[in-house]
Amino acid sequence: MPQVNDTALQVQVSAPPGLKFPTGMGFLGPDDILVIEKNTGKVKEVKNGTISGTVLDVNVANVSERGLLGIAISDKPKYVFLFYTETENVDGGKVLGNRLYRYEYDNGRLINPKLLLDLPTIPGPSHNGGVLKIGPDKKSVYLVIGNLNYVQNQSYITKAQNNKNGPPPDGRGGVLRITFDGGVVGNKGLLGGEDPLNKYYAYGIRNSFGIGFDPLTGNLWETENGRSTDDEINIALPGFNGGWKEVIGFSKDTPGFNKENLEDFGGKGTYRDPEFVWRDTVAPTSVLFLHTDNLGPKYKDTLLVGSVKNGTIFNFPLDKTRTHLVLSGPLSDKQANTNTNNETNSVIFGRNFGVITDLQVDPDGNLYVLSNYKRDGTIFKISTKNNIN
Predict the structure, then answer these.
(1) Does residue 81 lie in a domain region?
(2) Which of 94, 110, 132, 223 could link 210 by a cystine bridge, Cβ 3.0 to 4.6 Å?
(3) In a domain, 319, yes or no
(4) Hey, how many other C-beta atoms are within 10 angstroms of the C-beta on 321?
(5) For residue 308, is pLDDT > 70?
């Protein structure tokens, strides 16, 4: 069973059976959640712990990391954004594109789809990313997408992947941001004026399943999956270059690393080393800042990171500048060499949650964990033991 280290907290199952490989969730209101299913293309509504219905069913590719991959819900206006690998006519049919749509919620249905981004899928089928977040300005939406290139086909390694002599960026390998209507935020690209480079907020990203904003600074944080080692936590400031594919992990540990080999888009992009690295892979996923003291003041505005391996939730406090993690003891070198408890126990919040795909806070300040637990889609609610909600 899932467990948390804090004895003042409790874990409860908060969703009924019937969710199939859920990849993301968003709150419409208290006890009212939209949950997306990767392989079916269905968006299901869970009200008061019961699946009340399917509000949308789209056609998706579902091989490997393709599928219905991201959801974000804005408050004003009430839009639901979905990112998915769309297919023609049926699930698993002819692939049309990795697409970001905006919908409106109307009494148990998602209506009025508007296509905002139409992005590549090849060579695929992995590294699609797909996590969505509403920006701190409440007027923009951010999408993280990987390099779509598990086999490292050279034809698709663009300047956004630090191939200085490669083709121009085509939407892959970065964090993209757009307005709710699909336009360029501020009418000016951070890295350049041409499309789609003007939509990049960050680049040099191999394969990510998590982005999240620090509510105190507005800074974006991102998790990254390495090949078989060197999973990362990054602070992705505007114009951030994650370094792929010149570097993964710390640059000092990369043989032959030369900063001159990095693409900087005329000085507008900036490489930055990770803030934390797991040498022994954990496959980090969701990023969440707990902007509430509902679970106790020590968790307020700390960084939570979900993972696949052992279903672990990590908890990292930030320093006063909010640009570095507070790490001590065996983690003071900013890396975990193994996943043994004696090295990482100081930053473990909970474990045994299955394959964690999303972390969210409900309107009441409780923590919700979306996971594939023993092959069943499950939502866990973490609250204080004296919380009767």
Answers:
(1) yes
(2) 223
(3) yes
(4) 7
(5) yes
